Amino acid sequence: IPHMGWSRVSSLKSPLFEGLEEGSYLYFVHSYYAEESPLAAAKTEYGVTISSALWRENFFGTQFHPEKSGDAGARILKNFLDL
Questions:
Q1: Are strands 59-62 and 3-8 parallel, antiparallel or unpaired?
Q2: Which of 16, 31, 45, 65 is deepest in the core (most CB within 10 A)?
Q3: Which of 62, 71, 74 is nearest to 14 (CA)?
Q4: Ramachandran angles phi, psi of 73, nearest 5°
């Protein structure tokens, strides 16, 4: 499903989201989505529940663009660099 714009993230799990508030807005631009997964580090409601971030061991993948997501995105990038 095409998804462009600001959406809230929830169910935050992983050091990537340390210090980020539940329900923070992040910026999404994509035309696909990752279904709900046990590896989800964050979820987003966008017509359906999607895995907006996936995490396994030292691998992370996100549906959103942290570099376009303001202060919340900057925090995620800092957390990634601190891992």
A1: unpaired
A2: 16
A3: 62
A4: -65, -40
Least Cα distance to 50 among 60, 36, 64 occurs for 36
Structure tokens at 25: 């807005």
Please give the Cα distance from 1 to 30 (Å, whole number). 8
Phi and psi torsions of 78, nearest 5°: -60, -45
Neighbouring C-beta atoms of residue 60, cutoff 10 Å: 17
| SS3 category, 22 | coil
Alpha helices for 1-83 (secondary structure H): 70-82
From 66, 67, 62, select the one nearest 51 (Cα to Cα).
62
pTM given for the model: 0.91
Side chain identity at 30, as an amino acid letter? H
